[in-house]
TrEMBL record:
Active site per UniProt: 146 (proton donor), 303 (nucleophile)
Record-annotated Glycoside hydrolase family 42 N-terminal domain positions: 10-379
EC number: 3.2.1.23
Amino acids binding substrate: 107, 145, 311
Protein name as annotated: Beta-galactosidase
Record field: transmembrane: none
CDD domains per the UniProt record, alphabetical: A4_beta-galactosidase_middle_domain
Taxonomic lineage of the native organism: Bacteria, Bacillati, Actinomycetota, Actinomycetes, Streptosporangiales
Source organism: Nonomuraea diastatica
UniProt xrefs under PANTHER family: BETA-GALACTOSIDASE GANA
Length: 642
């Protein structure tokens, strides 16, 4: 990452007459832009016919950037094959679970397992890299774009063969696979590898193990595509880092942990969901996830919006000042680059109503004024670059667990693991405590508190990892319906929560999903879920009105493990999380009124910046641990050094 804050967005000059390019670059300099992504959707113009390449126009784009001192995130254009590809190779187009082949006309029209697609993608990547490997504008490879956003899973015969090969590499024998999938049920026992298909549409519920493994395979197929392009780029341009934009926290079809391990720097896209009551808290979740995927190191916000998007039922425009607050919130949580989709708003195409840095109405607009002011502000915050956020709290999240719980045959459809993780994260946000997200098998040393809101599936090593964390003095809080199945989605027998019965000192004999609220002795309530639990060694801290445990605490080694047997209402959850934070001595960097976001970034030498972002309509006073106070005006944000 650079020693300045990268600032800019996707520039798509091919959408415009060449006479506008000089104007674009002049306005970029006026707005403080120092970085743009180029070539993301340029395959059809870079290779207008198969094997015929035209780089003349793109040479002029890259030269113009270099002459203007603007660096390029140079994309490999492989996210959107051109029309000639689908016309020549219809067998490489994606197929849905019902056997319907999809066609060219949007983007990502390819089967991730197609060898023909990989061949053509690597060929255009090689052409781009060979031509621009020494170009002074090249700063970062932006490989592909939003992997799996529209073609995360393909069910064609090519994918079926690749799935079988993946299974053979993961299981020692066909009998081991039959055991893992529980295929004795419903007469699904496989006698030959060739009998195994992707989980295509069937008369009834699909096999849970088959569905889970197919989602793992599909994610791995996308990672393999990235690695193939990245390795070619490393060979041709050693020393130039590579990334791809993950959509962390919003797109759950890829295993972001596995993808992030292959990136030189994590980058992600984030867009506000207008239907959320407090979308800035959802933003914080995504930003914390991106930072965690990069091992706590700074990361790159590859895309967000200056105002409205184009793909929601109601595409709300951002209020004055919201663009700045959103951008500074990402910066506060570890981003060293703030970029938008896109530079100039499109005149035509499916995203013509998506906002941009330069709107349809031009420079005499709120958006342009805010874009320019933000560019100047970020230029003055270059000292922030390279600093990190230190979190005392982590939330465990795992894509395999999310995928397994997504199977339709669950005790209740009202327990959404992603939404529950976000709800616990929101409770921390409101308490002013910044947290990381962590993989269940990841390194938990350095944390004081680990939260497990909804981890239905956990491996033996993941279960032991949490036990070791608590034994060494950590505090954990585990939510209901966690630790229930192993990595193959097989129930852990002997009583729930199987993986952590001993750790939690609780045995659950039966689940009781709810169709209404249930009152607790403390005055709070639960919803959607309850359990018939027995405290074997745990202390009961709260109960249902009928006396069964709702919240327990169990001493374990030098630490403590808390457990909830219901989905607490927001206020009750906030109270429990406040209690476990106090026990673990996890504290915010400063005190602030509700609705004011406070995060600290620090350098190893002690230099730091406190970000205070006021999302309310009232002025707010933020007070540090030393007693120093600052006032943050309504809707404003302040970045305080020291």
């Amino acid at each position: 990452m650079p020693d300045v804050i990268a600032y800019g967005g996707d520039w798509n000059p091919e959408q415009w007459p060449e006479e506008t390019w000089e104007q674009d670059v002049a306005l970029m300099r006026e707005a403080g832009v120092n970085r743009v992504s180029v070539g993301v959707f340029s395959w059809a113009l870079l290779e207008p016919a198969e094997g015929v390449f035209d780089f003349g126009w793109f040479d002029r784009v890259m030269d113009l950037l270099a002459a203007s001192g603007i660096a390029a995130n140079l994309a490999t254009p492989t996210a959107s094959p051109p029309p000639w590809f689908g016309d020549a190779y219809p067998e490489a187009l994606p197929v849905d679970s019902g056997g319907r082949r999809l066609h060219h006309g949007s983007r990502q029209g390819f089967c991730p397992s197609s060898p023909i697609y990989r061949e053509k993608a690597l060929r255009v990547t090689e052409q781009v890299a060979t031509r621009y490997r020494d170009h002074p504008a090249l700063a970062l490879w932006h490989v592909h774009n939003e992997y799996g956003c529209h073609n995360a899973r393909c069910y064609c015969d090519t994918s079926a063969a690749a799935f079988r090969a993946w299974l053979r590499s993961h299981y020692a024998s066909l009998e081991a696979l039959n055991d893992a999938w529980g295929s004795a049920f419903w007469s699904q026992h496989y006698g030959e590898w060739a009998q195994i298909l992707p989980p295509r549409d069937t008369p009834s519920l699909p096999n849970p193990g088959q569905q889970l493994d197919f989602r793992r395979f599909s994610s791995d197929a996308l990672v393999e595509l990235y690695v193939a392009e990245r390795d070619l780029l490393r060979e041709l341009t050693p020393g130039v880092p590579a990334t791809t934009n993950l959509m962390a926290g919003a797109h759950w079809d890829m295993d972001c942990w596995a993808f992030a391990a292959e990136l030189d720097v994590v980058s992600t896209d984030h867009y506000l969901i207008g239907a959320r009551a407090e979308p800035h808290i959802d933003l914080a979740f995504a930003a914390d996830y991106a930072r965690s995927l990069n091992g706590g190191r700074p990361w790159l916000l590859m895309e967000h919006s200056t105002s409205a998007v184009n793909w929601q039922p109601r595409n709300r425009a951002k209020a004055p000042g919201e663009l700045r607050r959103n951008s500074l919130a990402h910066l506060a949580r570890g981003a060293d680059g703030i970029m938008f989709f896109q530079w100039r708003a499109s005149r035509a195409g499916a995203e013509k109503w998506h906002s941009a840095m330069l709107p349809h109405a031009g420079v005499n607009t709120k958006v342009w004024r805010e874009v320019s002011a933000l560019g100047a502000e970020l230029a003055g915050l270059s000292e922030v670059a390279g600093s990190r956020v230190k979190a005392d709290v982590a939330i465990l999240i795992d894509h395999s667990s999310v995928w397994a719980q997504d199977h339709p045959a669950q005790p209740s459809s009202e327990l959404d693991p992603v939404e529950e993780a976000k709800r616990w994260h929101a409770a921390l946000w409101r308490a002013g405590i910044t947290c990381d997200l962590a993989h269940p098998e990841g390194d938990l040393t350095g944390y004081r508190l680990v939260l497990v809101p909804a981890l239905y599936l956990v491996s033996d090593s993941g279960a032991a990892n949490l036990e070791g964390f608590v034994r060494a003095g950590g505090v954990t809080l585990v939510g209901p319906y966690s630790g229930i199945v192993d990595e193959h989605d097989r129930v852990r027998l002997g009583g729930y929560p199987g993986a952590w019965r001993d750790l939690l000192g609780v045995t659950v004999e039966e689940f009781f999903p709810l169709d209404g609220p249930i009152r607790l002795a403390s005055g709070g309530s639960g919803s959607a879920w309850s359990e018939v639990a027995h405290a074997t060694s745990a202390k009961v801290l709260d109960t249902y009105a009928t006396g069964e445990p709702a919240w327990t605490r169990n001493a374990w080694g030098d630490g403590a493990a808390h457990y909830l047997t219901t989905r607490l209402d927001d206020d009750a959850l906030a109270g429990v999380i406040a209690a476990v934070c106090a026990e673990a001595e996890a504290r915010p960097p400063a005190t602030s009124p509700p609705g004011v976001e406070v995060v600290r970034r620090s350098h190893p030498d002690g230099r730091s910046h406190l970000f205070a972002i006021n999302h309310t309509a009232e002025d707010a006073v933020v007070t540090s641990a030393s007693g120093a106070s600052v006032t943050v005006a309504a809707g404003d944000a302040r970045v305080i050094a020291g």
